Amino acid sequence: MRNFYDNKPNGYLETIQKGLSAVRTFHSGLSYGTGSREENLRKLKSELESADAIVIGAGAGLSTAAGLTYSGERFDRYFFDFKERFGIADMYSGGFYPFPDEETRWAWWARHIYFNRYIDAPKPVYKELLALVEDKNYFVITTNVDHQFQRAGFNKARLFYTQGDYGLFQSASGGDGKTYDNEEWVIKAMAAQRFVVDENGVYRLPKDRLVSMQIPTEMIPRTPDGESAAMNLRADETFVEDKGWHAASANYAAFLDENAGKRVLYLEMGVGANTPVIIKYPFWAMTLENENATYACINYEEAFCPKQIEERSICIDGDAGELLELLCS
Q1: In a domain, 90, yes or no
Q2: Range list of β-strands (E), the chain
Q3: Same domain for 109 and 193
Q4: DSSP-based three-state secondary structure for 170
Q5: Structurally, how many domains does the chain consist of?
Q6: Helix/strand/coil percentages in the chain, nearest 5
Q7: pLDDT of the chain along its 329 residues, tens only?
């Protein structure tokens, strides 16, 4: 990663280090929590109301619950031609496909960005979560790159997108340490593929489903300095942690410091096993060291906690959307 802002506190690295150092202390195994589903929902409602601070950690499962699925009907609708020609089975694997040319690769990315970043989620999961915390002292750390928290109305100053943003380009080398908004380019690239705008201002397939799998050569994105552009997604050391990223990281560090020792609810939602060092392990570690803290895990078939914090944990297995609806009722 490219780091140009060493003078700011880095909440990202600080929490990862805290989580990694604490993992070895969780030696007694894992627990799926105690109490019934109904009891845990009541307990979580109570914690949401009484906590001095709420730290929300969100992973891909939250966006999946909101309907932003990467496979199935949604993928088949918007990427049917890429599926037929290249055998691509889902949006995730398509992001790594070795397309034959840049015109095709960037046509793919224009669709991928648009349908995951520049439209509202099909289900109101993020808005329901906001309704639970908007009048409370909260902060969000997420590995998601789809910007759905801001689209739902969350305060930008209380958000930290650790892994990048579909809405940003950077130089391929990452050498300038800058990112560039890509919305204007995405809209033009969608039109160049013959997608049409409906009555709600959203791009859809034309009735004849005849769309292009390429953009014009002159539309291949470049930075203002003329360098080849790339997605601002954390994949290797070229990932740019820009000024905004470091400001958010510092805000996260400050929020954790300001609320250390208080009654804190660490609410983890939809976080899988791919990057546990960013959210899951640090949440476990911070709950362990603060006897006033509670850890809550909402996840589909992956709701668990270390036995050391079992008595101060709430584990609820299920779809985040369904559970949030119950919490809001």
Answers
A1: yes
A2: 2-3, 30-31, 53-58, 138-142, 159-161, 164-171, 179-181, 196-197, 203-204, 229-233, 240-241, 264-269, 294-299, 305-306, 313-317
A3: yes
A4: strand
A5: 2
A6: 40, 20, 40
A7: 445 555 678 889 999 998 888 888 887 789 999 999 999 999 999 999 999 999 999 999 999 999 999 999 999 999 999 999 999 999 999 999 999 999 999 999 999 999 999 999 999 999 999 999 999 999 999 999 999 999 999 999 999 999 999 999 999 999 999 999 999 999 999 999 999 999 999 999 999 999 999 999 999 999 999 999 999 999 999 999 999 999 999 999 999 999 999 999 999 999 988 789 999 999 999 999 999 999 999 999 899 999 999 999 999 999 999 999 999 98
Residue 175 placed within a domain: no
Contact 216, 192 (CB under 8 A): yes
Contact residues for 308 (Cβ-Cβ < 8 A; gap 6+): 25, 26, 28, 288
Do both 32 and 159 map to the same domain? yes
- Domain extent, residue 216, equals 73-120+183-220
Whether residue 233 lies inside any domain: the answer is no
CATH number of 257's domain? 3.40.50.1220
Residue showing tokens 């050498």:
175
Statement to judge: residues 199 and 101 lie in one domain: yes
pTM: predicted TM-score of the whole model, two decimal places: 0.94
Which phi and psi angles does 138 have, rounded to 5°?
-125, 160
Q: Does any domain span residue 45?
A: yes
- In a shared domain, residues 125 and 113: no
